[in-house]
Amino acid sequence: MMSVEKTTRVLIVDDSAFARLMISKHLAMDPNIEIVGTARDGIDAIEKIKLLKPEVVTLDVEMPKMDGVTALEKIMADVPTPVVMLSALTAEGADVTIKALELGAVDFFLKQSIINPTGDGDTNTELINKVRQAAKVDVAGVTTRLKNIVATLQRNSQKKSMTAAPRASRVSKVVIIGCSTGGPRALYELVPNLPADLPAAILIVQHMPPKFTKSIAERLNELSRINVKEAEAGDMVALGQALIAPGGYHMVVRKNGQVMLNQDKPRGGLRPAADVTMESAVKVYGSRCIGVILTGMGSDGTQGCAMIKAGGGRVLAEHESTCVVYGMPRSVAEAGLADKVVPIQKMVDEIVALCGKSNESLARV
Spelled out in words, what is the top-level CATH class assigned to the domain 163-355? Predict the structure, then answer.
């Protein structure tokens, strides 16, 4: 007997009647999505959530009476429901969206691509996929854990050494992290808990648009013991530093350990792509590479991890139990590339174990 796909009930929240109409039209393209109602501001949204009990809420960031972030906090406190934020492609919009992800939003989507009448089919599919994936997330427990994590990190952030700085280009290990949907949340649990003296350099590829990667890099830097920054052309791969690939650019490593950025063709529709960064790192560092694949849709990172393994390196994948979307890690695990599959809470310990704490045999690139 053919299984019937479950319908996802969605509430659309936006102060613009035109935006509500366009979002509804986009989502209605999927017969398994039901628009149960709309709301014009945060106050209206909370009442509608209580009344209509949607499985997912699309929530605009900027609204009168009660803005999206304030509404999100109240939603998570009073009626925990998966939320996809609708954000503007601006520096301010990026900062607010990163804050929303800290507060428990499952994902975000660029509002311009929804209300622009020239939007393409790929955009329609992306929004639908984000909503369908959000419906599968148990936000109540995850949000409580995330708030506790961020609160603890904020208390500890003052302990970051004022003298901490990237340490030349002598690296014993290079950890390349790839993540997508749910990635910011996973990175909050992982990066700030890496020890300041970890004998490894970190490269991070998080699927995000321009401006958003800069915002998350700055936030992680505030909370972490290592230095975190959005990569710029000419940066060096260095101990005590994590470089995040900027949205819209592939991040590659040259033979001298210098990072370069390019806008070559997207890989699998993605730029940045973890595969690109991993493959370039293996050519330089070989067996010193450690691939880490966290939550996300699709299979980015699988080809890169295959090269890491072929080069003698090691691979870790996040366990399904802590993934927002068990796509990228599943692809790596099912390909037989993962040395270990562990929940995000144990990932730091595994990375530290693979890197070791010894500085013996540090090799110059």
Answer: alpha beta
Q: Is 46 helix (H, G, I), strand (E, B) or coil?
A: helix
Classify burial at 141, counting beta carbons within 10 Å of its beta carbon; exposed 0-12, middle 13-18, buried 19 or more: exposed
Q: What's the per-residue H, E or C state across 254-271?
A: CCCCEEEEECCCCECCEC
pLDDT of 286 higher than 60:
yes
Q: List the structure tokens of 233.
A: 């052309």
* Residue range(s) in the chain whose domain bears CATH number 3.40.50.180: 163-355
pLDDT, tens digit (0-9, with 9 covering 90-100), for 220-238: 999 999 999 999 999 999 9
Domain 8-137 carries which CATH code?
3.40.50.2300
Of 15, 41, 300, 331, which is the active-site residue? Answer: 300
Looking at 180, 215, 224, 280, which residue is catalytic? 180
Is 113 in contact with 121 (CB distance < 8 Å)? no
How many Cα atoms are found within 13 Å in the side-chain-facing hemisphere of 150?
19
Query: Which residue in 26, 207, 250, 319 is the catalytic one?
Result: 207
Q: Tell whether the model's pLDDT for residue 162 goes beyond 80.
A: no
pTM of the model: 0.89
Where along the chain do the CATH 3.40.50.2300 domains lie? 8-137
300 tagged catalytic: yes
Q: What is the CA radius of gyration of the chain?
A: 20
Q: Could you confirm whether 180 is annotated as catalytic?
A: yes
Decide if 172 is catalytic: no
Question: pLDDT tens digit string along 65-108?
Answer: 899 999 999 999 899 999 999 987 777 788 999 999 988 899 99
